[in-house]
Inverse folding.
């Protein structure tokens, strides 16, 4: 995982659910690729952050390691306050 670019937040009425679209720049063993993703961050009543990911197009790499790297990166960005509010 290198970075997230073109992060846009979708407007919604539910204050504890934030939805985003962006381009994820991913570095694979043989290449670097840009993957368009949708993700949401939901805050539970106890304060736990739940992140959901979806890919509108297939990824040319095994999905489990890609998803794990993205979830870790998004969680770190959220904790450090770098995502649009």
């Amino acid at each position: 995982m290198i970075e997230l670019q073109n992060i846009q937040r979708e407007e919604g009425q539910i204050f504890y659910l934030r939805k985003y679209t962006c381009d994820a720049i991913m570095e694979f063993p043989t290449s670097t690729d840009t993957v368009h993703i949708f993700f949401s961050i939901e805050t539970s009543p106890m304060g736990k952050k739940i992140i959901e990911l979806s890919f509108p197009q297939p990824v040319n790499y095994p999905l489990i390691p890609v998803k794990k790297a993205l979830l870790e990166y998004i969680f770190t960005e959220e904790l450090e306050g770098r995502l649009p509010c």
